[in-house]
Amino acid sequence: VESLDPEFGSRASGHIGWGRFPSEEPIMSAIISLLTIIPSDYRNEVVLITAGPTHEAIDPVRYIANRSSGKMGYALAQAAQKRKAKVVLVIGPTSLTPPPGIHTIPVTTAEEMRDAVHKHFERATVVIMPAAVADYRPDQPAETKLKKQGQEPMSLKLSSTPDILTSLALQKSGQFMVGFAAETDNLIEEATRKLKAKGLDMIVANDVTKPGAGFGSDTNAAVVLDTHGIVEDIPLMPKRDMAMKILDIIRLRLDHQKQTLHTV
Ligand code: C5P
Fold it and tell me: How does residue 160 score in pLDDT terms, banded at 50, 70 and 90?
């Protein structure tokens, strides 16, 4: 059974919110992918995927977060599952229903995400990290709710969170590592910098200011880069199709790595 998420907008009740019947585009894309023969080319792979944002507590009722919906990570997890991978999905707080049949580990903070990812890293053969991990967190979260101090400005002291991918690079033992870069400017430069700084094999860069390619949408457009430069420019398409494309690109690279090992 394939289920689609409802869409956001005006509803028959007169309210605006989640609950609209999906539009033709995601329905058609779901039908096409159900009718397409999907290869089992990930059956020997263990794919570790992260999704969604992280929440960093300010006090017991407030937190710092971002607009990530987790949809790209979910799409990748479902695509890898269809291609018969063993999938471990580490998800930050999202409103999405966990995909059935996938080993899903819910986490809240960047530190929890790091711990969950590290726990499953060793047995993974591919790691894909679309999660929008918070880069900073409040230094000292308050134990009780902070009270408003009249109209006085308020400042929060932030400290940086652990960079999960960088910490994984130190323990890498053959895993194919893919990061994501959601940018508003200097897309290629920023993505290339992150690819190198985080020791990645590949990075998927998307300009979140482009219509249909931002956080929360069901579609995405992206440029895939490796250490030699641009690999593929993926046009706007449903995230489930982009997930399949990304897995195609990774598969080619894994096969190439294996061939090179055999030749050596
Ligand atoms: O936040 P940034 O743009 O640096 O994210 C780029 C990549 O690094 C993403 O794949 C993200 O999941 C990962 N990341 C991470 N640990 C962080 C921040 C980001 O692994 N603390």
Answer: very high
Classify burial at 48, counting beta carbons within 10 Å of its beta carbon; exposed 0-12, middle 13-18, buried 19 or more: buried
**Res 170: pLDDT:** 84
Indicate which residue's Cα is closest to atom 2 of ligand 1: 181
Residue type, 79: A
Are 66 and 214 in contact, with CB atoms under 8 Å apart? no
Q: Which residues are catalytic?
A: 66
Quick one: which of 234, 233, 110 has its CA closest to 162?
Answer: 110
Residues 230-264 have pLDDT tens digits of 999 999 999 999 999 999 999 999 999 888 877 76
Q: Residue 38 C-alpha to ligand 1 middle, in angstroms?
A: 30
Nearest CA to ligand 1 atom 16: 163
Cα-to-centroid distance, 20 and ligand 1 (Å): 32
Q: Which two tokens stand for residue 200?
A: 């990645």
- The position carrying tokens 């993926």 is 234
Structure tokens at 43: 């059956």
**In the prediction, which pLDDT does 214 show?**
74
Residue in the block written with tokens 């819910």: 106
Counting atoms of ligand 1 from 1, which one is nearest the CA of 182?
Answer: 3
User: Ligand 1: distance of its center to the CA of 251 in Å?
Assistant: 23
Which among 41, 57, 208, 188 has a CA at the least distance from the CA of 130? 208
Give, in degrees to the nearest 5, the angle at Cα 249 between 43 and 234.
Answer: 135
Which residues have C-beta atoms less than 6 Å from ligand 1?
110, 129, 131, 133, 135, 161, 163-165, 179-181, 194, 198
What is the 224 CA–ligand 1 centroid distance (Å)?
A: 16
φ/ψ of residue 7, rounded to 5: -105, 165
